[in-house]
User: What shape does this take?
Amino acid sequence: MYQTQRISLIKWTSLVLGVLFLSQCIAKWKAFLLLPNVQIYFILLALLTIFLGIILLLGVTVYAEEKAKGRLNRERPFFERWANRLFIVRHNEVNQ
Assistant: This one.
């Protein structure tokens, strides 16, 4: 069973962080177009990598949310593995 509170918290946090990192990516892209240099390029590349990681986390969160609601027709192994790592209730967590 998945923890719905953890799913909700990570979903909203990743949405907020996704918006922030996307705005930073756009700002750095505009700065790179005005004055192309290696430093801005590497910052832009790092921001895009973090943004794509946040989008992947959001995808896993939505998968876990839909699975908890029972709306999935079939399992996706990649999303299933990560959703189990992030959101599954373990017996030692319940007892504490």
